[in-house]
Design brief:
5-stranded mixed sheet; 6 helices; globular; 232 residues
Length: 232
């Protein structure tokens, strides 16, 4: 019997199926957002917390499906539409904050922003937004009530930090982040796909023999978990 596990038709079918699933999840996520936005402060329906949690879970699913599609297309291939361009940080942060706004408000989480709105960086805007959106969604799981997105530039590096004021990442996640940072395909727990995707996006950004990287640590300004994306 011929081995069909590598059939291009099978991979195309799976990618198409994942794309359809992502579209359905996006519709569900949009519906939940509309319902949460319509709720009046102080007059939230009885199921409001459950709806907020459902929105969080649909965002997680949507992130995972988007990452699977990008990895299927193989980030870093010569024909991948990698498109680094000058981006004003103010516009980038606005997009990220807008995407997270309803989810954070529904869970009563404050988003602190620390960046120079006039500063400009050169990177693939869509991919970096995907990485930051995933990091914020992941921080929702760990924070008590505050998340911080900070962007700084130093010694030719652009550093994006997503921090929270929770108890910090558990050892298993810190180990996963260290493994991915060393190029290991660490896909053995729920955090693996997002970390691997983020690492691949970082790696694609190169300048003068330097390439981007990611890291996880505990501490930071808010004292909880910190996701760090560094781009040259």
């Amino acid at each position: 019997m011929d081995d069909q596990t590598g059939s291009p038709e099978l991979f195309l079918f799976l990618a198409s199926t994942v794309h359809d699933m992502k579209n359905s999840i996006s519709v569900l996520s949009g519906t939940l957002e509309n319902l949460l936005v319509q709720a009046q402060p102080g007059q939230e329906p009885q199921g409001y917390p459950q709806m907020a949690h459902m929105l969080y879970q649909t965002r997680r699913l949507n992130d995972n499906l988007m990452q699977l599609l990008a990895l299927y297309k193989d980030l870093g291939k010569p024909d991948y539409p990698f498109d680094p361009r000058p981006v004003q940080l103010g516009e980038l942060v606005q997009q990220v904050a807008d995407q997270a706004r309803v989810l954070l408000q529904s869970k009563q989480i404050t988003l602190d922003l620390d960046y120079d709105p006039e500063a400009i960086g050169t990177f693939d805007e869509d991919l970096v937004i995907g990485v930051l959106a995933h990091a914020i969604n992941n921080a929702v799981r760990y924070t008590r009530d505050r998340i911080r997105l900070a962007i700084t530039e130093s010694d030719g590096w652009l550093e994006f930090r997503v921090e929270d004021n929770g108890m910090g990442f558990p050892p298993s996640m810190l180990e996963a982040g260290a493994a991915v940072g060393k190029g290991v395909n660490f896909l053995t727990n729920s955090s693996g796909l997002g970390l691997f995707f983020s690492s691949e996006v970082a790696r694609m950004h190169r300048h003068r023999q330097r390439s981007g990287s990611i890291a996880l640590e505990n501490g930071g300004v808010l004292g909880g978990g910190c996701f760090i994306l560094r781009l040259p």
